[in-house]
Amino acid sequence: MSPRRNRPRGSDASADRDTGLADRYGLGHTEDWQGEEWVVRQISGGAAVKHYRCPGCDQEIPPGLPHVVAWRQHGGEDDRRHWHRACWNARDRRSARLPRSRNAPRY
Questions:
Q1: Rounded CA gap, 89 and 83, in Å?
Q2: For residues 83 and 105, what is the distance between their CA atoms, to the nearest angstrom?
């Protein structure tokens, strides 16, 4: 008897793999905000391995917490900012950012 085939055949297999990659690695989509196109990528908790500072609330995003990464479409990836999901969704309703104190850590 021959072994069972675990992979589906045909062109549908490549479509399934592409959507699986999008879910796993958080491939981005674009959103319009402040008259500009922004690339937005959802980061899963397993992929978040560093500390980040959210520009929406100025609080720390610890490792292991799912969050959002956003940057201007025509900007570089060096301009990426890591946001809490709730902060990104409420970015239009937030007031002006409070400045951090001199001793606050900058991540």
A1: 9
A2: 17
- 52 DSSP β-pair partners: 61
The Cα–Cα gap between 35 and 90 comes to 17
For CA atoms 21, 27, 29, 33, give the dihedral sign. positive
Structure tokens, 70: 């956003």
Give the pLDDT confidence of 34-80 residue by residue, as tens digits.
Answer: 888 999 999 998 888 999 999 888 899 999 999 999 998 888 778 89
> Residue 34: left if φ>0, alpha if ψ -120 to 50, beta else—which one?
left
Indicate the pTM of the whole model: 0.63
* Whole-number Å distance between alpha carbons of 80 and 93: 21
The single residue listed with the structure tokens 């397993």 is 46
- Look at residues 85, 62, 92, 71 and name the one whose alpha carbon lies nearest to residue 28: 71
